[in-house]
């Protein structure tokens, strides 16, 4: 089945017979969601299938002034017989499929002995049929200790490159790794307790509660399968009113973390960097650094939030948001060193993992063009590192100067923070035009040959 990934997993052997019945219902629901995502996805158009292919941006904006449902995140825009733009709610367009999903979730709730998880499933079933997820999102935030991790519905906005409004369906199913979660929760808390100054005039959004789960993922469906995320942070950044009141929770997915490191990041490290750089870091040190950088990235989504960033930057928001959290994570590690919670070498490894990750997004861009915001962000990081002489080309690879890298990242963080905190759309657009992905990565192209572009996944 397209856009459904089932991961090899041993954690299911620890489930009771009753839990396995719950799991089967969740998997059935997840598989249905993949069809809804495929109905939304269309890589030929910036607006995917959310808008008519012949509709210009101004026409949609004018229609939205008359009908607020046009830019509602849970509607398709179609033309009626008179050629006018009309909004069709997801719950109406996918009524048959969503009714089936809702029934499966209520059946799973009836089989579960986890009262918190039960209430969440029932609420999510109801919300899927009414295109409003506030009630179930609030209950989902209370499932941080539940055995099953289960998210289903339309959340992330990456497919909509016209307005960054419409949300795409996805689902994941996983089992909580309690030990790993406890360890990384401590690391997350350290970075979130760092005091940060906000730019004068910026509309700061303070997030009081940030939870974390690390899961043995069983299944991806829809957008999360297409993007092969290593982590995800919900509620959506568009639901800031909800996040400010109830907090947020991010999930890290162990199978994709391991796969991305083994198949991309570590081979990139071995092929791109010279022998002197490679001798400084072991595989184990880099793998730990990649996990830490993933926690930093997700945590920093909440460390620095601005009320109006998405509205000001519109479809350019993810380019700056994802880049800023990467940079802020590295910069914030300086505080951890002062607290004796991180060594200088660990910070060097985290910085190096960020560089390798930037190269990953470029190398995978041909197979996954929807990763463009990440690839552009990676291009900007590499440009600053090259100009700051943190990456210098030698006869057999690049030498990495971690001290110069931190200086360059500090400088870039300050620049990007202006755009995310105060910049307008025109300014952001002009800034991005200064960076060309192909040009930024051209020096590294020859070193990336032979690194596979496919998935390790088992498609069902």
Question: What report would you give on this structure?
Answer:
- This protein is of the alpha+beta class.
- It has a domain at 177-206 and 252-460.
- 53% of the residues lie in helices and 14% in strands.
- The chain has helices at 17-40, 57-66, 90-93, 95-111, 115-128, 134-140, 178-192, 223-227, 240-246, 254-272, 275-280, 283-303, 309-313, 317-338, 344-363, 372-387, 402-421, 425-433, 437-441, and strands at 4-6, 75-79, 85-89, 148-154, 169-176, 204-205, 210-222, 231-234, 248-253, 305-306, 391-394, 397-400, 458-459.
- The termini are close together.
Helix and strand topology:
Elements: E1 4-6, H1 17-40, H2 57-66, E2 75-79, E3 85-89, H3 90-93, H4 95-111, H5 115-128, H6 134-140, E4 148-154, E5 169-176, H7 178-192, E6 204-205, E7 210-222, H8 223-227, E8 231-234, H9 240-246, E9 248-253, H10 254-272, H11 275-280, H12 283-303, E10 305-306, H13 309-313, H14 317-338, H15 344-363, H16 372-387, E11 391-394, E12 397-400, H17 402-421, H18 425-433, H19 437-441, E13 458-459
Parallel strand pairs: 7-9
Antiparallel strand pairs: 1-7, 1-13, 2-3, 4-5, 5-7, 6-10, 8-9, 11-12
Helix pairs in contact: 1-4, 4-5, 5-6, 7-12, 10-12, 10-15, 12-14, 12-15, 14-15, 14-16, 14-17, 15-16, 16-17
Main β-sheet description? 7 strands, mixed
Gyration radius from CA atoms, angstroms: 22 Å
Provide the low-confidence segments as ranges: 456-460
Which structural class fits the helix and strand makeup?
Answer: alpha+beta
Spatial separation of the terminal alpha carbons? 5 Å
Summarize model confidence as the mean pLDDT: 93
Portion of residues within helices:
40-55%
Q: What percentage of amino acids are in beta strands?
A: 5-15%
Task: Please count the beta strands (DSSP E, at least 2 residues each).
Answer: 13
Overall geometric form: globular
Number of helices: 19
